[in-house]
Amino acid sequence: MRKRQKKVLHYRRTFHINIAVIIFGFVLLYFIVCFFHYLTSKHVSVYEVQKGQIMETSVYTGLILREETVSYSEESGKINYYCKESDKAGYNDLICSIDSEGSVSDEITAAGLDGTSLTKEELSDIQSIVTEYTANYSDTQFYNVYSFKENLNSSVQESLYLAALEELSGETDSGTFSLIRAATDGILAFYTDGYEDVTPDTFSADLYQPSSYQKNNLKSNTIVSSGQALYKTVTDENWYIMIPLDEEETAYYQTMMGEDSDSFVIQVTFRKDEAQAYATASLRTYDSETFLQLAMNSSMIRYISDRYIEVELGDENQTGLKIPNSAIIEKEFLLIPTDYISQGDNSSSQGVIRVSSGDDSDETAEFISTDIYYTDEETGYCYVPTDDLSIGDVIQKPDSAEQYTISETGALSGVYNVNKGYAVYKRIVILTSNEEYTIIQTGTSYGLSLYDRIALDGTSISEGAFVN
Fold this sequence. Notes:
Layout: H1 19-40, E1 46-48, E2 50-65, E3 68-72, E4 77-81, E5 88-89, E6 94-99, H2 103-111, H3 120-135, H4 144-167, E7 177-181, E8 186-189, E9 191-192, E10 216-217, E11 223-224, E12 229-234, E13 239-244, H5 247-257, E14 264-270, E15 275-286, E16 289-296, E17 308-324, E18 329-337, E19 342-343, E20 350-357, E21 363-369, E22 374-376, E23 381-384, E24 394-396, E25 403-405, E26 409-417, E27 424-427, E28 430-433, E29 437-440, E30 453-455
Antiparallel strand pairs: 1-30, 2-13, 2-17, 3-12, 4-6, 4-11, 5-8, 6-7, 8-12, 9-10, 13-16, 14-15, 14-17, 15-16, 17-29, 18-23, 18-26, 19-20, 20-21, 20-24, 22-23, 24-25, 26-27, 28-29
Helix pairs in contact: 2-4, 3-4
């Protein structure tokens, strides 16, 4: 019997799409692209634009004028002082002593070197001076260390000299020892500089010489001669600061004063200790030079040791968007006369008509749409970007055959906005600035808005660059 052959049929498997694998592939591809973008893009620090304000002030060096009376010696000999600078002296208060023979003065001077004789009250006063200085100490005002040292030394010396004078009272009755007392009430100063008799009415422009100023420290003298200056007394709380001005500054303060007034009130900040006061300001002319005169009736005693002093004037606050100075960059734009700006036939966009010549020398006109970042009304030029136009392009005035070849550029201040993940230039209008921040105008065309994110360092990025 014949065997039946078996026929084997191969079953063809159908292909099934695995959706999970496809999704995983897309996710993997997305992460690869993001990782590549992270490696290749700029890592830029970002600053969020905030609203803020900066106080506008101007810094000047002024010359101080006071009512000062110098007292002179009527005899010669060794001198010892019993008061310190800025002490308030009443009539007949002891100021100093002069010993024509010298022995008593030497004993007083020697006693001033021995601090062991200080009483508890005197030590308490010295401790108060140290405590006050420590409480007010600032690293930004290190110069106060010298004032503190001088004040402390003078206080110790004053106490020791007075104690020694009391112990030696039996030896001071001789005709060779004289006590010098204050002839009037006032604030004491122990230097001369030639400005003691100068008033705002006798002042002249050539007296303002801060670079060559010198003063004579009267306390550095251990021996005096007859007719030599001993001390001076300031008897009036009214004092003045004279500040030279240029033409622009004169015009500014003239505007502040107004046409119907000859003075105005201004805030004064003394840079020496950051103390503030208000002064009555007026403009005065000396030898064809204009000076701002600041008249004050307080704080004179704080600066009795100074003749020239640095002051900040003004308290006007400029308010706007506040950005760091490091974010500001300058960008070049093409300058195009405003007469050449027109609108396209089929759109409302602004631009220019660019004229180009073909191989057959025939001219063809093409409307190029462009942004106008700024229009300078004084010069009559518009600032347009270099995206579609360049130096050497020829443009034509609308409804005219007159042509202009682009040849000039100008710079505008701005920052890089990174809201969209890449750098976009935004124009800014600066109102005022200080060492760290700038206040810019709000509502500027092609400008910034509140809470925009900008590159903290404008020089670390370029237009169109992606950022993380």
